[in-house]
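User: Just a sanity check before I run the rest of the batch. Below are the structure tokens for the first item. I only need the designed sequence back.
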């Protein structure tokens, strides 16, 4: 098989790394890839949002399968563009990608199909309407820019001033661009978050192992939101009764709702959940795999990913093929100084080889660039040090031991990935 992977982050390095392990894969291209992917695939300099450019490349190279990492090409319609030409691709249509591309579309979908979600205080088209709607909201209130905003479009506001300030920046000053033309106001939930991602060919579905992301930049969930500073996976995240509830009240109604609305869905569907005292509730849908959740997920895959994805593209997902390593995995993100604000780049990275000598560890690259034999930083999230082990404690131990061997100027990372899970277990909960 010849495979085209679209994207250039840690998620895509995880996909490429896993796909390359398949005996049936002979060639992988990655657009645009990064400094680590370059060792495993042929990187091609095409922007992931450039559907026409990607189609022209596929026309020329004729990949047997295209796997889409990020949301932008999906929201821009790459799923339709490729399928219309008869090319196998993993990812939903432009219409289905609206589940991520428009939070108001997703909210209306959740309401229409009675899927547990946060009470909405309003979907607003102007700043004035949004200020007015705040009067009927209970604080804390969650304000969400409707469109894609690269992870910066959501604020949990505790005070009126904070809420008004965000609405002003998003709707009056247009700081987030077109994604902020409309906003959604909703009830704030409390609880632990869970990333529940499943793979579907439109008929059958297979849940991936559960993961938990760590979105805030600092330990103890402090500081601003990021794309994700680390993730872990263990089956303990999803006790059987909770799994049953999620499937019965969320996943199956979502698939039935898509079918009822005449929206076929093929690819990965990421359900961002809050586990509240009154059960799991949907915070968001993403029309793709998560980053860094994917790094923790691929580490536990015990099946041929290329084979399974080929089945999905042809509408023949065999769920029994998805087998998982027992135990746990962890991914610790090493970030550039300043991230998630303005960050520095071009720093030389050292210690990668020594880090990967630790059993079960793989340093998945995100914002890196190869220059000759050396690797330099080129993004905010630089590396996802990923490990797999029989227990979560062991997976975290080796990921952190590896992180300590890596160095670049002003590197920072969270020291408490997965710690909440261990304290939960220690207290018997
Ligand atoms: P979203 O992009 O909708 O997942 O929002 C990003 C993050 O904002 C989530 O991972 C949560 O941490 C937080 N969030 C979103 N919606 C809510 C909500 N209704 N209540 C509390 N936190 C939320
Ligand atoms: N890690 C969260 C996301 O991929 O959206």
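Assistant: Here's the designed sequence for the first item:
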């Amino acid at each position: 098989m010849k495979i085209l992977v679209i994207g250039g982050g840690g998620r895509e390095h995880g996909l490429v790394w896993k796909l390359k392990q398949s005996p049936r894969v002979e060639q992988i291209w990655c657009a645009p890839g990064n400094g680590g992917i370059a060792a495993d695939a042929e990187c091609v300099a095409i922007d992931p949002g450039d559907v026409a450019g990607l189609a022209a490349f596929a026309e020329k190279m004729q990949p047997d399968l295209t796997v889409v990492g990020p949301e932008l090409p999906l929201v821009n319609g790459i799923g339709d563009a490729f399928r219309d030409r008869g090319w196998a691709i993993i990812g939903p249509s432009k219409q289905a990608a609206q589940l991520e591309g428009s939070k108001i579309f997703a909210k209306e979908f959740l309401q229409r199909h009675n899927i547990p979600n946060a009470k909405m205080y309003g979907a607003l088209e102007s700043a004035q309407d949004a200020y007015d709607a705040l009067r009927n909201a209970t604080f804390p209130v969650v304000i969400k820019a409707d469109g894609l905003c690269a992870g910066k479009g959501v604020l949990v506001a505790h005070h009126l001033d904070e809420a008004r300030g965000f609405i002003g920046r998003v709707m009056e000053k247009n700081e987030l661009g077109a994604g902020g033309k409309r906003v959604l106001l909703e009830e704030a939930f409390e609880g632990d978050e869970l990333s529940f991602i499943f793979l579907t060919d439109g008929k059958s579905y297979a849940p991936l192992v559960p993961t938990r992301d760590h979105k805030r930049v600092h330990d103890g969930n402090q500081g601003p939101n990021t794309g994700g500073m680390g993730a872990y996976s263990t089956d303990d995240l999803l006790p059987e009764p909770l799994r049953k509830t999620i499937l019965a009240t969320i996943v199956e109604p979502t698939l039935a709702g898509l079918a009822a609305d005449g929206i076929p869905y093929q690819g990965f569907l990421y359900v961002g959940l809050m586990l509240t005292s009154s059960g799991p509730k949907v915070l968001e849908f993403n029309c793709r795999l998560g980053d860094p959740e994917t790094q923790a997920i691929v580490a536990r895959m015990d099946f041929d990913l290329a084979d399974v994805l080929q089945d999905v593209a042809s509408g023949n997902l065999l769920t029994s093929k998805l087998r998982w390593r027992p135990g746990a995995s962890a991914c610790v993100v090493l970030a550039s100084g300043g991230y998630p604000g303005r960050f520095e780049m071009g720093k030389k990275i050292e210690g990668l080889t020594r880090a990967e000598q630790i059993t079960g560890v793989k340093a998945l690259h995100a914002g890196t660039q190869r220059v000759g034999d050396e690797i330099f930083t080129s993004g905010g999230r630089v590396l996802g040090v990923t490990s797999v082990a029989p227990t979560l404690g062991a997976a975290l131990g080796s990921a952190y031991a590896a992180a300590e061997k890596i160095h670049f100027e002003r590197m920072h990372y969270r020291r408490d990935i997965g710690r909440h899970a261990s304290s939960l277990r220690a207290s018997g909960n």
